[in-house]
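User: Thanks for the earlier help. One more: Cation transporter/ATPase. Can you show the sequence and predicted structure together?

Assistant: Of course, both are below.
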Amino acid sequence: MENPHARTCEELLRFYSVNPEIGLSDEQVEKSREKYGWNELPAEEGKQLWQLILEQFDDLLVKILLLAAIVSFVLALFEHDDQITAFVEPFVILLILIANAAVGERNAESAIEALKEYEPEMAKVLRQSKVGVAMIKAKELVPGDIVEVSGNR
């Protein structure tokens, strides 16, 4: 079903074949789970450090700093003094870019992992096999479940 959030309750109940008084049967739950899978975010593979660094170079500011490092390096090559200190500036700019890339991406991944911890662990649903409202693990929810929504007060 496309755009279930824009449908009426009656349309959703008909589409998922749900009785609003007693909820889904165990058979319907199993069929939905086979079709849609578990109600959880997919696990993402951790990226390699070099991939994280390369992704940071998509940012415009990083590209500008990279261009500045290249210009500084070229100017150091054509400088009349053959001192190694002329290459320090472009080298430092590149080190800062790489360090910023690694730290920034690691922090972003940590933030995503922290958000996953805020997922609700339990849900209140109507199921035919249970009497009244039952507490189940949120990852066991399937499309068509009648869910009780309430606040913390």
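User: Great, one quick takeaway?

Assistant: The mean pLDDT is 83.
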